[in-house]
Amino acid sequence: MLSHLNALTFVNWGFDTFGITAQDRLSNHAPFNFDLSVFDIFVAVKAGAAISLVPEGLAVYPMELSSFIQDQRITVWYSVPMVLTLLQSRGKLEERDLSALRLVLFAGEVFPTKHLRALMQKLPHPRYANLYGPTETNVCAFYEVEPLSPEQSAPIPIGKACGNTALVAIDAEGRKVTGPGKEGLLYARGSIVMQGYYGRPKESAACFIRNPFAVGRVENLYCTGDWVTLDEKGNYLFVGRKDHMIKTRGYRVELGEIEAVMVAHPVVDEAVALAIPDEAIGNAIHAIVTLTNSSSLDAIELKRHCAVKLPPYMVPEEIEFRGALPRTGTGKIDRQQLQRETVARGT
After folding, report:
1. pLDDT tens digits for range 63-96
2. Which of 103, 236, 223 is nearest to 158 (CA)?
3. Whole-prediction pTM value?
4. Final residue of a structural domain among 132, 161, 190
5. Structural domain range at position 48
6. Strand-strand pairing, 318-321 and 282-291
7. What b/e string do you get for 33-50 counting C-beta neighbours within 10 Å, with b at 16 or more?
8. d(CA 30, CA 51)
9. What sign does the dihedral 260-264-267-269 (CA atoms) show?
10. How many domains does one find in the chain?
11. Is pLDDT of 347 > 60?
């Protein structure tokens, strides 16, 4: 249950942070029942700005989409990273006049650093910001992207807490994470956090804990389910989903770390690592990969690439190449479908 206060807290923060004015034209790419649309619609309404509704299905046609952004004179774009990746690789941005575009926001999934760098090289004039948060908080953290050097491959930070929001990471021993090198589950509090799940009291109770650091007062924290750490500047870094942590050969493994290493290969476009139950080792790691246009790469070569940056137990046992990955209705990779297909083939 997201209250008016929850939504208004986010809307006011977005309006102030990004300086939205009546002269802006915001894109609306997300369906109205998807939380990204709260920014598009209500921040625009607050500012008296215009909204351009992106036609359904246009996101998979990057050349048409870049023409749409140009013709509509969009100033603020907000979408999942996949759409921006397609724009930079296949949208012929160099042939478009996108001088009106001043702000590019992305959220919903990890934006591979190499794809973001390529986009920023083609469109160097806008501000770029990574917005982070589960639906239960809409957005609770953000990071304004600094220039990316050619050699930088580390993931983009999720940043620091939004206004009227507090974040805290708590490690497995119940201690607050206060510096680099330690990992913890990320919790949020503030007027941006939902009230609970309608008609599901057990689930609501399970996602909140009493704040152990609030001395002398009763205060709840919402568990995002994401493991994070801190960098030297105090920005939170996404480590992985609680439900993406697996055990293989007795080691704890974060599937997202494997995916990041594979995507760092010059010709890998997207990568998904799946945990397939295995009686001998607990879970076998199965990777599904797409390549950039007209590129060639075999499984042995990609495993060698992984072995340079990962310990042996994190190198995928199997690597499968596909022309494209299935998507959910919001444009994210459909991991559940890939998991079902892979498990079904192995039975």
Report:
1. 999 999 999 999 999 998 989 999 999 999 999 9
2. 236
3. 0.82
4. 161
5. 4-161
6. parallel
7. ebbbbbbbbbbbeebebe
8. 12
9. positive
10. 3
11. no
